[in-house]
Amino acid sequence: MDYDAWRERLYGPLREEGVFTWDRMYDEEYALADMLTITARRRREIAEATERLGALIVRTVDVVRQGGEALFAELGLPPETWGAVRIAVSDRLPTVIGRFDFAWTKQGLKMLEFNGDTPTGIVEAFHVNGRICAAYGMADPNEGMAAHIGEAFRQAERTYRELGYRTDRIVFSALDWHEEDAGTTRYLMRQSGLAGATFAGLSELRVYGDRLCVLQDGEHKPIDLLYRLHALEKLAEDRDEDGYPTGAHALHLMAERKLAVLNPPSALIAQTKALQALVWNLYEAGEFYADDEREAIRTYMLPTYLENRFAGRSAYVTKPILGREGGGVTLYEADGSFAERDGEALYWEQPMVYQERVELPVVPIRHAGGVAEARLLWGSFWIGGRASAVVARAGGRITGNFAYFVPVGMEKEDFHE
């Protein structure tokens, strides 16, 4: 069977079911009809790194959100968010769904960043990967982990209720015209198990009577608990058609505990890459972290700073503090000469972090155009405070919007090693 026919056999049913309809994006192939493998040993190491770094994020964010506005400003958080980001579901849950991005390097497994606010790749990891593994006769490294989503959402809802929040009317929201965002949000809604939850497009949300509401059929229906696949720094800029700062008002409602939100606002602290610089600064100073935490930082994190300490010493990369999908990333050689830069227009106006540069490993992939080499990035989800599913992306030296999703499996005998 040729590649195109095999690909349609794999993704056609998923498309027809309406669960995964973005196997092609921007008129280009996104989901490959290829298969990568991972050993059980490496799968365990990714899970261990995720658990250890997740615990580190919990401790660090808990202290940061009690800090002052000067610290928030240094971390690159928009002023409109400063009241809200102090709000977490609990001290141990600064975010409910996060995703670490890892690379296997010559120095071992290294974390490049943490997507703590609005991670995607969720349907691919928790649903699609298993279906493709089954077609290939491979074991799914994410088997059974979709249950983590519902457990995490229900625990978060219970915790909010115990804290005195109302959670009667639950709305899941994203850009309704954006196929990936809307599809991911609807999938999470189904997996959440939250009774009575409904979907609404972001364009339907309004502030009315000092409540965030859904405007439907001319009626403003108040929201008690909101899941939003919409970045908080973007929400801070959102305005109604008449210019009213709806986003800033919504953030105020979060800060005043009049609106429960998932991911919680504290997720933005976990999201900013400046947090990695703070962690590394504390590590180098020998402050705050215990020995086991310092060992995790040394093993899995990369030196990251708010100023350039690499020029003349080693190759490095600059990243926007709140950039996403590789936007605004530039690679430099040790002498400061340009190596490669992201081609998208977004995020260049943001403050940058400087991080030691590592090369993503090269893997052969098969796509509609033939066989090629690509750079491999691993995503590892951290759900409800524990390691969960993995997802593989293959692209260039900078993993951006046009990187492929590549299903990943384990050989069955290796799966039980």
Walk me through what this model shows.
It is a single chain. This protein is α+β, with helices and mostly antiparallel strands and 417 residues long. The chain has 12 helices and 22 strands. The chain is 33% helix and 26% strand. The chain starts with a helix and ends with a helix. The strands form 6 sheets. Strands 4, 5, 18, 19, 20 and 21 form a 6-stranded antiparallel beta sheet that branches. The protein is globular. The model has no long low-confidence stretch (mean pLDDT 94).
Question: What secondary-structure arrangement, pairings included, does this model have?
Answer:
Layout: H1 3-17, E1 24-25, E2 28-29, E3 36-37, H2 40-64, H3 69-74, E4 97-105, E5 108-115, H4 122-136, H5 147-162, E6 170-174, H6 179-192, E7 198-201, E8 205-208, E9 211-216, E10 219-222, E11 225-228, H7 232-235, H8 246-255, E12 260-262, H9 267-271, H10 274-285, H11 291-300, E13 304-305, E14 316-320, E15 330-332, E16 338-341, E17 352-356, E18 362-367, E19 370-383, E20 386-395, E21 404-406, E22 408-409, H12 412-415
Parallel strand pairs: 3-22, 6-7, 6-11, 11-12
Antiparallel strand pairs: 1-2, 4-5, 4-19, 8-9, 9-10, 13-17, 14-15, 14-17, 15-16, 18-19, 19-20, 20-21
